[in-house]
Amino acid sequence: MKKIQLLPILMGVLLVVSCVKKGPWKGQEIVLGTAVTISVHDCGSVKGIESKIEDIFTEMKELDILWAYKGEESDLALLADNAGGESQRIDQYTFDLLAKGLQFEQLTDQAFNIRMGPIKELWGFHSPNPQIPDSADIGSALALVDGGMFFAGKSCLLGLAGMKLDVGGIGKGFAVDLAVDKLIDDGVKAGLIEAGGDLRAFGAPRTGEKWRIGVRHPRKPDEFYCILNIGEWAVATSGDYQQYFEVNGKRYHHIIDPNTGYPSTGCVSATVLAKTCTEADAIATALMVMGAEKGGRWLEENPGYFGLIIYFDEEGNLTHLISPELEDSFSLH
Ligand code: AMP
Ligand code: MG
Questions:
Q1: Confidence of residue 207 (pLDDT cuts 50, 70, 90)
Q2: Given a cut of 50, is residue 303 above it in pLDDT?
Q3: SS3 46
Q4: Phi, psi (5° rounding) for residue 30?
Q5: Which residue is closest in CA terms to ligand 1's atom 15?
Q6: pLDDT at 12 exceeding the cut of 50
Q7: Among the atoms of ligand 1, which is closest to the Cα of residue 173?
Q8: Is residue 41 over pLDDT 80?
Q9: 278 in helix, strand or coil?
Q10: How many CB atoms within 10 Å of residue 7?
C-alpha cells in the first residue's frame, strides 16, 4: 500500500458521467432506505427501456419488504421472531443475500457480520434518538452476534432466541447488482446504477472517456476527496460521517466492531472497487472495522479487491492508503 499525504481536497458521491448516444434514460426511487438511481446510457436494441427500468424498481421494492425489520412479509422479521425455535422458509433473494453475507464474514474474519441486529437496535442509529447503550446491554447483545445460523434447503434458523439479522452493510450492493444483471440480460449495453453512494458501472461510455466518480470528503460534506476512474467496476464507500452523533466531542457512528459492540475507530472512510457491488459494499463496511493498518494488509492479501482508506494519522492529519492498482485512476481533487 502506498501512503500519500493529503492535499487540499474534495469529496461526496457525484457521478461525472461521460457517454451518451441517446438518452440517458433515468429513474430514481427511494428503496432500502436510500435513493436508488438507474441511468441507462446505451440501451442497445432494447425497446421500451423506461418500462424495464420501472420493472427493476418493482423488484427492488420486493427486497424492501423482504428485508424490512418489521412486517408480515419480511423474511428478517420472520427469522427474528422464530430465533431459537423453528427453521423458516425464506425467499430466494434472502437466501442468496445471507449466503453472500456469510461468505464475506469468513473472508473478513468476521469484521463484517450480518448478525448485528441486536447491537444495531441498542445504538438506535436508525431511530430519531440514537444513544450510547449501557455496557451490560452491549455484552448481552454481543453474545447473540456470534449465534449460529443453520440452513436446510431454502429454510433458515437463527440458533439463539433474541438473534436478529442486519443486512444494512450489504443490501444496497445486492440491489445494485440485481439491477445491473437484469439490464445486461435484457441487452442493455451501458449504464450506471447507484444506491446511496454504492454503484456499479457497465459498458463503455461512447465519448471514449471512462466512468468517473467523486469520493466524498469525510469531513467536508460538499467536497470531493478525490476522483476515481472506475471503468466497469462496482464501488462502495462506508464512512463514519453517514450516520453518527456526538457526545462530549466524541463521534459515535453506525459501523460497529463486532468484537467490542462499539463504533469502529481505525479509519474514517473506506472505498472499495470490486467486480460486483455486493462484494464492494460488504468489504467497505469490513474495512471500516479493520481500520487503516489491518485493512491495508487485507487489501494486499486479497487480489481482485482494491481500496482507498482515509484515516487520521498519529499527528491528527487526514491521510490515506490506496491500492497501487488504483493509483493511475486516482486524482486528488
Ligand atoms: P455501510 O454503509 O454499507 O457500511 O453499512 C452500514 C450499516 O451496516 C449499518 O448502518 C448497520 O446496519 C450495518 N453494520 C454495522 N456494523 C456492521 C458490521 N460490523 N458488519 C456488517 N454490517 C454492519
Ligand atoms: Mg457496506
A1: low
A2: yes
A3: coil
A4: -90, 115
A5: 255
A6: no
A7: 3
A8: yes
A9: helix
A10: 9
Question: What CATH number labels 64-158?
Answer: 1.10.3980.10
Cα–Cα distance measured from residue 200 to residue 208, given in angstroms and rounded to the nearest whole number: 18
Measured in Å, residue 119 CA sits from the centre of ligand 1 at 11
In order, the DSSP letters of 158-217 are ESSTT-----TTTHHHHHHHHHHHHHHHHT--EEEEEETTEEEEES--TTSPPPEEEEEP
Query: Is the shortest distance between the CB of 113 and ligand 1 below 6 Å?
Result: yes
- Alpha helix (H) ranges present in the chain? 49-66, 75-81, 92-107, 117-123, 135-145, 171-186, 277-301
Q: Which ligand is nearest to the CA of 280?
A: 2
CA–CA dist 48, 40 (Å, integer): 12
Of the residues 109, 170, 285, 290, which should be mutated to test ligand 1's pocket, given the most ligand atoms within 8 Å of the CB?
285
User: Probe ligand 1: pick from 115, 165, 166, 199, max atoms within 8 Å of CB?
Assistant: 166
In this predicted model, what pLDDT tens digit does every residue of 123-136 receive, in sequence order?
Answer: 999 888 999 999 99
Residues in the chain, how many?
A: 333
pTM reported for the whole predicted model: 0.92
- Residue 158 one-letter amino acid: L
Q: Which atom, in ligand 1's list, is nearest to the CA of 281?
A: 3
What totals of helices (H) and strands (E) does the chain contain, helices first?
7, 18
256 lines ligand 1 (CB under 6 A): yes
Q: In testing the pocket of ligand 1, which one of 116, 122, 252, 290 has its CB within 8 Å of the most ligand atoms?
A: 116
Where b means 16+ CB within 10 Å and e means fewer, 272-286 reads: bbbebbbbbbbbbbb
Domain boundaries of the chain, sorted by first residue = 64-158
